[in-house]
Task: inverse folding
């Protein structure tokens, strides 16, 4: 891999829910403290995510788009800093609720992208919002419109980490993309 000016990352954050069961962000369940056994990879701990060598992939002036959920919002700021980026603004994907879902007093119907900067890379353009109502797809699949947004704001070269599929003009590195290396435990 080379150096990138724009990095998108959707790490496999561990998800703990009631009863000691663990759920990966990719949608599978298993017993145990944060790991899933029936998928080709394990969710990573926050410390393992911090150790992914993103700082080595990024140019001195770069943008990072780091996906996270409410449960790991504070950790996402720490991960961005560990990767050599300065958190800048929180973007929100507002989802139409699908029943009760997860959560306590409130049903969780949002996901977040922490936009971060390294150095002084200027955006290609400015957008007039920090929230979007993109359509939902399969569990944990990110909307295609998000990558379109990234390409409007941030310059190439592009890489998507923990990618689920390939996209023209992007390099990918991830658990669900063919012929890519893997990070973390397992």
Result:
């Amino acid at each position: 891999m080379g150096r990138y000016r724009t990095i998108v990352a959707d790490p496999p954050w561990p998800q703990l829910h009631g009863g000691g069961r663990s759920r990966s962000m990719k949608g599978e369940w298993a017993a145990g403290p944060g790991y899933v056994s029936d998928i080709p990879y394990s969710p990573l701990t926050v410390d393992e995510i911090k150790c992914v060598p993103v700082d080595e992939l990024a140019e001195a002036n770069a943008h990072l788009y780091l996906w996270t959920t409410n449960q790991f919002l504070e950790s996402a700021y720490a991960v961005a800093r560990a990767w050599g980026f300065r958190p800048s603004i929180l973007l929100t994907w507002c989802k139409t609720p699908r029943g009760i879902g997860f959560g306590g007093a409130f049903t969780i119907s949002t996901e977040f992208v922490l936009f971060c900067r390294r150095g002084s890379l200027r955006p290609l353009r400015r957008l007039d919002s920090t929230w979007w109502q993109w359509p939902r797809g399969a569990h944990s699949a990110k909307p295609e419109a998000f990558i379109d947004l990234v390409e409007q704001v941030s310059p190439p070269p592009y890489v998507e980490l923990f990618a689920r599929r390939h996209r023209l003009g992007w390099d990918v590195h991830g658990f669900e993309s063919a012929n890519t290396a893997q990070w973390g435990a397992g």
Q: What stands out?
A: The first helix runs from residue 46 to 50. The longest strand covers residues 58-68.
